Amino acid sequence: MRPPIASLVVLLLVVAALTVIGLDGIHAERVPQAVLNGEQQIAADTALSVRTPIDVEASTIRRTAAAYPATSTSTPATALKALTSARKAVLGRVLLDAHTGKLLAAGGRPVPLAGVDAARLTSGHGAIPPRLMTSGGTRQLLYFAKVTLPAQQQDANQDQYQAPSRTERQWLLVVSEALPALTTYGDGRTAEVLDASGTALAITAHGTAPPAVADSGLPTAAAHAANGSGRDTDASGSLLGATTGGRRTVAGWAQVASATGPGDTDDLGLVVLTSRAVPTTTAAADYSHFALQAAGALAGIALLLGLMLQFSVQRPLLRLYLSAGRLARGASETGPAAWEELARPVPVHGFGELARIGWALESLRRQLLGESGPQEFPARRGPGYRALAVVGVVVVACWSVPMIFLLNRADTATAVPAPVVAGQQARTEIATNRIRQSLDQSYTDLSDVAAGLPGRSRAAQTEVLQRTLADHKQYRSLYLLDRSGDITLRVGETPLRTLVHVPDGGGITTVNTSGRIPAIAAYAQVRAVKGKAPAAGVVLFGEIDVNVLNSSLSRPKLGSVWVTDGNYKVLAASVGYRAFQSLPDSGLTRLARATQGAPGTTGTATSAVLSSSSGPSVDAAAPLAQSGPTARLGWHVVAAEPAAALQLPAVQAEQRTMLAGILALTLGVACLGWLHVVVIRPLRSVALLVERLAGGDRRTVLHPVNHDEVGSVTRSLELMRQTLAERGRACRSGHAAGPARSRRENTPQR
After folding, report:
1. Cα 367 to Cα 365: distance, rounded to the nearest angstrom
2. Rounded to whole angstroms, how far apart are CA atoms 298 and 419?
3. In 574-717, at which residue ranges do the beta strands (DSSP E only) sit?
4. Which band of pLDDT confidence, cut at 50, 70 and 90, is reported for residue 1?
5. Four-residue CA torsion sign, 482, 486, 488, 490
6. How far lies 435's CA from each of 366, 622, 720, in Å?
7. 160-169, 359-368, 613-622: least confident range
8. What is the pLDDT of residues 283-312, one digit of tens each?
9. Cross-strand partners of 96
10. Which segments of 455-498 are extended strands (E)?
11. Is 567 helix (H, G, I), strand (E, B) or coil?
């Protein structure tokens, strides 16, 4: 009986203490933490946008070198031209002898080869990561690839052929390129690419808003923080810069390194630094007074409930327990001791079940003394202790419900600062650009493959497609369609669906508009070569795995991200979805429609704070592309981050207030439910049994279920039942005197 009551009081007092601790720790900073976190994530997203093209370029150059069909008649000059002629971004290229490092062929601008040890670089079996070098006062990226020569390769630096070599030889391809173009989003935001020492390698700014105040210490601080995190991680962070005219510079930094293990950019030491001037806030957020009031009210409720249960349940039940034990001893003993136990009336305390048990025990006492016979009791006698438990729940709910639904509610219009909303829009634009680049790269790769198919045999085409499928994980299948729409050649999985009418040109398209899985494909024309047999198919399709697209959408603290078609139906998402379903909220659909510009234009990104059944969220939408093969698709990218996930004082206060209310209500219901199970419900059963026993039922055996006060009362009632049953049998057999006479004989004379 005592544990539920004590637990109720203690746990409610703990919730009161947690309310004070939780709400008192909320303070409003001049620059909210959510703004700093947002800038950090923008820097991380920008770093990913820098890292991805470097990784793609490095793997493409290595793949091209590995697929180069070197023959015994190949020369370094022809090989260099074949390997790099299609690379538009190449500044300079050279071929080196892998063993001696001797220059074999060169093209374009001079390639900075200082410190490049060809023998050491080619000695290992793994890929050679890119390097950052200086040439002409500018920093360039050097990409490396091994070119394997057949055993009977001619030495290009000799006028005569040498004797055939018994082992394969290698050339080292070195390609120099500029750093990937740096793109930034958000008015007034500046982005920089820094080297390990904090020197800016590339700078770009965006928008018309006032730029961040120049702070020479930010690049150095960002480089120092990045170096302290190690070069093989994608660590990121935030910094605060100078303050001017009520605006303060907020900066984010992130390493251009792989997050999933060794990568091509780990040794470059590149760091992305983004910065933006944001207005400082002066509004104070002090919830300590409210916390003390709420905690004091809950503490008062806890003590009130504890005292109420103490005086209305615990004490009456203990007195009843003592009275039942006294009657049981009187029923089982004889002589003056038995009379003394039975002589005192049973005090009736409390109400409901305890009062009923008290009246029934008093009737049993009189029956044991022989003063009365069985007595009938009415079936119901007003409210019982179940109503008391319900009242306790209602009292706790009177404190909890306002905490959950009414108090400290964050204002949707003012709770989220404007820089946070702008940051969500910038991150959505970065995600959109990343998806566009991925789709554009898929189309570019497919076009390169399609250009190499004409004039080849079917077996050679199959080999090319199989190699392409192995090298490009984004494709589910590659297949050729003829003019009738029939597949003439396929590698990989069976296409989800194919087009009936073969399109002209090339680009990205959706093959279906319904079904379980969206079918998205890149396509390019396969042209016939003059004087040779026509190609096996006229269009090469590469069906893109939508799971690869889904995985590219997920970014930390960006929330849920969806890619929709021109009809705002979901094609891909970072969360679970059904293909071609509408966006989960009509507000998101309206936001996506708002990105549409004037007729004939591609539209612009937009953002807003929207309210839904799950609470306010910071949402943004952007058109997928303004140019390139995906521009005509009309796709959109929509992102929604719940405001509850942001570190905003108003939102934190709402969350912690709701949590306190939920905890108090849950614990109150649990403890009072526990009291109902172990005390109130057994008391109801005992009340029925004792009234039946007092009413003359001597056959029903009373089995104690609980090993507590209620169980002890049940055991005492069983002893009384046995005594009354024996007396009844004795009376019926005529071998015992009346109870009144027997008692009088045992009564001591004065």
Report:
1. 5
2. 38
3. 606-612, 615-623, 636-642
4. low
5. positive
6. 89, 12, 83
7. 160-169
8. 767 899 999 999 999 999 999 999 999 998
9. 103, 172
10. 475-481, 487-492
11. coil
Residue closest to 370 by CA, chosen among 742, 747, 740, 748: 740
Q: Are 396 and 664 in contact (CB under 8 A)?
A: yes
3-state secondary structure of 348: coil
User: Would you state the structure tokens that stand for residue 587, as one six-digit string?
Assistant: 């507000």
Cα distance between residue 141 and residue 272, in whole Å: 16
Band (477; pLDDT cuts 50, 70, 90): very high
Q: How far is CA 519 from the centre of its chain?
A: 27
Which residues make beta-bridge pairs with 237?
253
Amino acid at 22: G
The type of residue at 610 is: L
What percent of the chain shows pLDDT beyond 90? 47
For the stretch 627-659, what's the b/e string if a residue is b when 16 or more beta carbons lie within 10 angstroms of its beta carbon? Answer: ebbbbebbbbbbbbbbbbebebbbbbbbbbbbb
Could you tell me the CA-to-CA distances from 464 to 57, 64, 309 in Å, in that order? 20, 12, 82
Residue 166, strand partner residues: none
Spatial neighbors of 608 by CB under 8 A, at least 6 apart, are: 421, 587, 591, 619, 620
Q: How many Cβ atoms are within 10 Å of 377's Cβ, its own excluded?
A: 17
| Count of CB atoms situated within 10 Å of the CB of 334 | 10
**pLDDT (mean) for 217-244:** 87
Residue type for 678, please?
V
Pairing of strands 271-279, 475-481: unpaired
Q: Of 729, 725, 730, 734, which Cα lies nearest the Cα of 697?
A: 725
Q: What percent of the chain has pLDDT over 70?
A: 91
Q: How many CB atoms lie within 10 A of CB 512?
A: 17
Beta carbons of 428 and 621 less than 8 angstroms apart: yes
H-assigned helices in 252-371? 288-309, 315-332, 336-343, 352-369
Tokens standing for 588? 């998101």
Contact 299, 16 (CB under 8 A): yes
- Rounded CA separation 326/68 (Å): 103
CB-based burial of residue 589 (10 Å sphere; 0-12 exposed, 13-18 middle, 19+ buried)?
Answer: middle
Q: How far apart are CA 637 and CA 643, in angstroms?
A: 19
525, two tokens: 């024309």
Instruction: Tally the residues of the chain.
Output: 750
Q: Confidence band (pLDDT; 50, 70, 90) for 162?
A: very low
Tell me the average pLDDT across 566-589. 93
Higher pLDDT, 68 or 544: 544
CA 80/CA 93 separation, integer angstroms = 8
Q: Which residues pair with 584 in a beta bridge?
A: none
Alpha-carbon distances, residue 374 vs 332, 368, 429, 491, 699 (angstroms): 19, 10, 86, 93, 14
pLDDT at 104 over 70: yes
d(CA 394, CA 387): 10
The H or E element spanning position 671 is: helix 649-675
CA separation, residue 178 to residues 85, 91, 135, 265, 434 (Å) = 17, 7, 11, 14, 19
The one-letter code for the residue type at 380 is: R
SS3 549: helix
Residues 296, 308: Cα–Cα separation, whole Å: 18
Q: Six-digit token pair at 147?
A: 């070119």
How many CA atoms within 13 Å lie on the side-chain side of 602?
14
Expressed in angstroms, the distance from the first to the final Cα of the chain is: 44
* Residues whose CB falls within 8 Å of the CB of residue 378, separated by 6 or more in sequence, listed in order: none
Q: How many CB atoms lie within 10 A of CB 494?
A: 12
Instruction: Write the Ramachandran bin of 169: left for phi over 0, alpha for psi from -120 to 50, otherwise beta.
Output: beta
